[in-house]
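Support case: user asked for a sample of complex input and structure output to validate their parser. Sending the pair below.
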Amino acid sequence: MTALLLGALGLTLSLVVPGILANAHWPDRAPAAAVALWQSITLTGVLAAIGVVLVAPYELTRAAGSGKPVASAALIGALAVAALIILRLLISLYGVTRRSRARRARHRLLVDLLDRAEQHRELGPDHLRVLDGALPLAYCVPGREPRVVLSHGVLQVLDRAQIDAVLAHEQTHLRHRHEVVMESFTAFYRAVPGPLRSRKPLEAVHLLLEMIADDAARRRAGAGPLRAALERLTDAIPLAEDVKPDPAGEARRRRLERLAASHTRSVALSTVAAAGAVGLLVLPTVILVLPWLDRALDAWPL
Amino acid sequence: MALGDLEREVMTQLWDAGEPLTVRQVHERLSRQRDLAYTTVMTVLDRLAKKGVVQQQKADRAYKYAPTQSREEMTASVMLDALTASDDQDAALAYFVGQLPPEALAAAIEAVQKKR
């Protein structure tokens, strides 16, 4: 019974909930809490899968009235599969982190060489780089030695206040280590078997991180300059894997909309979403896993 | 002067020269603005070659150095990298089509193809 409930929880969290949450509009008003909720949904899904693997053999062998040797074998098999799931996630995380670090290191090397230092002395930050090119483009290269990169086009089409808004936006990505959040979701996406994986969490979290950076930039530089800058800039993906660009402009439209004065952040929504994130992680463990563990340890076959 | 700034200035000299330069030539050009040891220039060129952005060629018993890509090519490939989520270059180019003025798109594609 516990295995069935955990299985249902896992499938709901990986197949049903992402679609609903990705289409909802309330996260625009509580982006940070919504990111926490996505993390909690993903993590609880993984824990539920591991739970099924551990609980199901125990419940099946008991229901079939199997003897101790069969129960022992089933337990060993279950532990092996659970270890395999965890190992697969860790290997995926290692691979994504290693590849994106290498890509950023190479990218940083090249922007350092291409930098037109004479064009941005008065703009301030040490780690700012300006590239030739009329295409207005602004992005950051995260890591231990981060960079904020602007194209020459940005300096031409934006005024000083708008440039400051863009810099504040990129600094927020760097200061909050948003690349770590994206990497963990990418690693999870890569580790999940084909039929169960969904791009929705990746894309939704990516947009929410942009909104978090928008909110910080709005506080520093004002909503007006930020809106104007956003309307003029080409989107760059913050050097993350597996997030596709946004050809229809839907993400940009949502970001512009919430920068309008009427669209404010909601403390109540943030609190509810954050509580939901914690509850999702804690409650299944308390309600399902602990009682089962209590019974199962009494009958430990090894 | 920081090593990073020096690397950038050496690259700028090589790009502006338009032809392979010897260590001595690079040293001469940089020395017009400041006092710089010959061996420092040699070290910087060696580092840039190890990073794959500069090519070492042997000509008349002297080594000459040239950038592996022009400034424009390198800029285009850096921007493409920033606009691409993965190694899937086609997706990035399709995205470019909607975002870029046509002439800028043509230039970007041309620069990337030259690199290959």
